[in-house]
Amino acid sequence: MSPDLAAIGQRLKRFRAERGLSLDRVAGLCGVSKAMLGQIERGESTPTVATLWKIASGLQAPLSRFLVGESGVVHRPTSPPRHRDASGMIVTPLFAFDPVLGFEMFAIELPQGCLSESSPHAPGVIEHVVMLEGEMELFVEGAWQTLVAGEVLRFAADQPHGYRNRGPAPAKVHDLIHYPFSA
């Protein structure tokens, strides 16, 4: 079991235990099967970013809660925590969730050909995407929009949305996520 998988599973299990939630209850809240949740908790399955988002949204928790825990310490020059999912998307937390400010921030890299679709986050969640390098398409409000380096887009993330890179090079973005609730 890789340390990354083990840590994500341990954080999910601890979060669930702190709130007295069964796997059945979490499955119902998140729309992720009890079997998949158990596999994640045991470090037997690599959850996609989309699956982690479903879990975080269902539990009304920030995504970084499962990627970096509650310490708030994220970036270390030697080895920042990164999560690569099956789509190839790489998510690196830059700022863990701050309950006072209500946000978290990620560096996201989408290799060529990558497609990552996300189900709606909790009501009121807003994403702010800043394109750093390359180009990508962002699916919001029922349509794909192309963003190139230097462009920004803010959107309501409590709707289906997605990221895809059909360009010739990796796309790199920063994604600041604002939560209207205190997690």
Automatic annotation (TrEMBL):
Pfam assignment, any one: HTH_3
Record's protein name: XRE family transcriptional regulator
Domain HTH cro/C1-type: 12-66
Keyword S-adenosyl-L-methionine: no
Coiled coil regions, renumbered to chain: none
CDD domains cross-referenced by the UniProt entry: cupin_XRE_C (cd02209), HTH_XRE (cd00093)
Keyword field: DNA-binding, Transcription, Transcription regulation
